Amino acid sequence: MIMPNTFREKLDRGEPTVGTHFLSPDPDIPELIGDTGLYDYGEFCAEYAAFDMQLLYHMARAGQCANLPLMIKPDQKSESFWAQAALGAGFKSVLFTDVRTVKDIARCQQAIRPDNPTNGGHMGVKLRRPALSGYSDQGPGSSPESYVQDLESIVFLIMIEKHMTVENIDEILSGAKDYGVDMTQWGPADYGFSRGKPNLMNTPEIWPVEELIIRKCLEHGIHPRIEIGDSDKAKRYIDLGVRHFCVGWDRFFYQKNLLQIGEKMNKIVKEL
Questions:
Q1: Domain boundaries along the sequence of the chain
Q2: 223 bridge partner residues
Q3: What tens digit of pLDDT does each residue of 85-123 get?
């Protein structure tokens, strides 16, 4: 059974979207996120996590149970392999990291788009979850076209996070538009890191660069997405034209609540 890509459907309707990150490979996490009914997708930050292919299948099934499309953010050096593995499990979007050149964007596009004259990708027929019934002559509603349509619906995102990328931002975004990139994600941490200034993200010096990226993405007709830790930070970006957000990380939610509960309980027991 192919899960509808409701994330893609919202983008096609021109609606704003809200996602949240998770680093834990526990399939309960996407199910918990989906059960709230408040998020358009969950982003598995695979670049920072320990996982295997079977866990991707469990995550995707859990997300499907909770009507939550999943995104994967793979590590650069193995991104094509893990992007294709995630799509085979049933993930609905991919965020590619460390883009430096238009050639990088072309490689990312090839990893996820169908290998046919229309799309020019390198993704062939892989008999994993989305193709199991689509290429069967016995399954209900079987149709090879549904497999192609599913691949075409995958939401394609790239990180804008390197100094050289920002220096050539118009060339990068023009190429991104040509290759069908749907959305960008600004990465202030890696941007400062690539400039030899790892703390730049925590200073006001980062704001003009951030605002440049948002403005250029809008000019090129590509959705800029912003990551924020909580909803209080959203207004500034909305005023800049941002309509897509990914809010919070499971690890930090857990840490924050541990601190709050622990501090209160320590205060209580000290009074005993």
A1: 6-270
A2: 183
A3: 999 999 999 999 999 999 999 999 999 998 999 888 888
Whether residue 169 contacts residue 100, with contact meaning beta carbons closer than 8 Å, is answered with no
Distance of CA 69 to the CA centre of its chain: 10
Angle between helices 79-89 and 53-65 (to 10 degrees): 40
Do the Cβ atoms of 179 and 112 come closer than 8 Å? no
How many CA within 13 A on the CB side of residue 178?
A: 12
Q: Smallest Cα–Cα separation from 122: which of 134, 113, 131?
A: 113
> What is the model's pTM?
0.93
Q: What is the mean pLDDT of residues 218-237?
A: 96
Q: What is the pLDDT of residues 33-75, one digit of tens each?
A: 999 999 999 999 999 999 999 999 999 999 999 999 999 999 9
Which fold does the domain 6-270 belong to in CATH?
Answer: TIM Barrel (3.20.20)
Beta strands in the chain (DSSP E): 17-22, 41-44, 70-72, 93-96, 155-160, 183-186, 223-228, 244-249
CB 86 within 8 A of CB 94: yes
CA distance 76 to 99: 9
